[in-house]
Write the structure tokens for this entry.
Amino acid sequence: MIRTYTFAYLKISLLISVVCLAFPSAGTAQSSTGTISGYVLSEGQPVYLANVYLAENKAGVATDSTGYFRLNNVKAGTYTLKSSATGFMSYSRKVTVTAAGKISLQIRLQQDVTKLNDVVVTGTLKPVSRTESPVPVEVYTPKYFQKNPSPSLLESIGMVNGVRPQLNCNVCNTGDIHINGMEGAYTMILIDGMPIVSALSTVYGLSGIPMSMVERIEVVKGPGSSLYGSEAMGGIVNVITRNPLNAPLVSADIFSSSWGEYNIDAAMKVNAGKASGLFGVSWFNYQHPKDNNGDGFTDLTIQNRISVFNKWSFRRKENRQASIAARYVYEDRWGGDMRWTKAWRGSDSIYGESIYTKRVELIGMYQLPVKEKIMLQYSYNRHEQNSYYGRVPYMATQHVGFTQLYWDKQLGEKHNLLTGISYRYTWYDDNTPATLSEDGKLNMPAKTPLPGAFVQDEWSFARKHKLLLGYRYDHDKNHGSIHSPRIAYKWTPDANNTLRASLGTGFRVVNLFTEDHAALTGSRQVVIAEALKPEKSYNANLNYVLKIPMNTAFINLDATGFYSYFTNKITGDFDTDPDKIIYDNLRGHAVSQGASLNVDAAFAFPLKVLAGITYMDVYQIDENAAGIPVKSRQIDAPKWSGTFTISYSLPAGFGIDLTGNWNGPMRLPIQPKDYRPEYSPWFLLANAQVTKKFAKGWEVYGGVKNLLNYVPKYALMRPFDPFDKHVNDPVNNPNGYTFDTEYNYAPLQGIRGFLGVRYNLFK
Amino acid sequence: MIRKFFICIIYILLTAPLLAQQGPVTFTYLQDSMAVHPKPIVIKIYTDWCSYCKMQDRQIERSPAVQQLLSEKYYYVALNAESRQPIVFNDTTYSFIPYGTQGVHALAAKLMQHHAAYPAWVVLDTSYRTKALYTGMLKDKLLLEFLRTIE
């Protein structure tokens, strides 16, 4: 719209010049008028199509491509001369025009980086893209997630088609990220390519990643163990942290919602010689218990979370890279009975789930000062959880150390070789029998060393063909040697067509107590049927990208078909006994198969549409007691789901975003003879937002979340008896129901408004 | 003298097919041609992923007037802002500045004054001085206007 705006001005300017030509004597005859002319420049360069006008009488012209403008027939007097152009801060000054006077002046406009990024008809950093790699990697920038602002990665990631943040507990709101219907434990979360959010920390660690530290997010749907090792079975979410070198000097983002949620993100850059440091702080606070569904329990978990982030980047010779970052997260959250206070923590009278989390991370990268490109990456994190689920305590500590050395080598024109070694060490201890010796007398923290080596070659064997071959070897003390091969192929017949085919494998060394939060809640007892074997996955993936350029529109279609086969998938059985979660090796297999389509359309007028739809069929085949294979659908995996983002820009820096995601029926964990339906209904969570950009890097945004006010009809089972004290009551509880928090398919938060402000100051 | 004559011959041989083709010329060609026959330069900066750049190309394709202007009055060059190849421009070599898996070409960064937005139109005079810079897609008529006012 900005463009039409400037175009309108251009028309006005042409009209004015036509008028001037038609009445050439008008100016000279009336000697009571003067002229203002001059150049509009920025950093010494001319600015084309800048608007120059007088605020008093709205008379205006647009500059030509040399930056020149001329205002004729200006009546004598004092005026406010204003100038504006897309990508520049507006300019204003006083001018006094005398009769027959000629004023000549220069206008210097300051560039406005934040505004430039939103010039309607330019593409800046693409909010959504795919990497050049034969392996299908989707790239998302914070700009995409700002279309529906959320305080944490866990909420934001739901805007990605095929990715679903699943709340596993209605009380404590722990969540994990499901990719193509697979459970969260199969999704590997990386920070700067390193396994920093794993095992224990996935339970509450995901909500502790503020969007303010994110430069971009890379999503791989399907396994990627050939590069990343254990846990990369179902999909990968790689969070790339901001680089201080190109971060704004000062940035801030503050918003609050009508539910009383407050979120503050602030960052500041410091330059010290060859080093650039980024200091960031993120604070999320929600302290107003609400019970709109009237079950006596909090609808949204009370949270107070602070995260402090500091990253340093160093300028080195020959663009060599070096950075080091540290982060600290503290969180206090509780959910449960509305009457709960800290005094009831761990008691069996008023139910509450209270969790304190402390977390320290250190992330570093160093390129060796040699001719070859050899990178050393290292990370360490300590995660401490102090929690009570009702009266059940869960105290756990985890240390993860990781280091990796890799060599990135271009061999001739055709081969790009990546080879390296890695070592990961996990130390885990909790207060459960899982970390006790067999006789139960000694505490034995679980120690998992995992050395590995990998090699990958990206081979451009013909002009339009690229092949990626990868192999990784890991050694685990329980499982022995683990091999993870990968082959991927990319064919680009022309600029508008790309075909990718990929075969990959994944594996996971199991530590079940930390990976499924369901195992932690006090309402179920965990039963391990027998010794668990490692899990493996095999995936085939076919992706086709079609670009359709048109005169005034551009459409990008991205279609993917996927098939993943999981052998020895370890599953939690929620159905056999409502008091237990039974873990067992799967005699049989699990399958996740389906297809997705993403459409990205841009037009010559300021409308952008991004929409995605996923169909998936996720099931497992397991032997029943009689040894007969039985097929069952995966819990929390809807067959149909989709997302959409519609953005429209208006003049004067206004923008509108409409976002949403919808889900078809998904199977839910129910109890025998449950009155709650086994399948969820279709539902849509839609959000609308209006943003307004101001000069000097300010931006205000506000809108409505969950516009249609969709809240699930059923949630908790027997919230009035959370300690199961009155279960054996054939009169009042004939079906023998027990307290259960896992029936969840949509957040319990209904419609709410939000308002926020952003500020970015560059140099 | 003879050398200059030969360069002229080569120049004519080089330009003849290109005039017919009316597409952008290469940087190597630009470097050689500016030495013998200076003309103002128009640079279109684009990226592979930029959808508005593709729309911009369509706008050029459908306007013979724009094509004619670009090929007759200017040396028209297209610069991929994410090209990994070093480019010799006005006797200076510019190369790719990597940043993680992405990055920007030094020449694009210089011409666009470090603000990445695509497509970008840069007009330089025969002494390589920037005469105009516009970031954003220009529809054919507006592009024609833009190029004409520079002349």
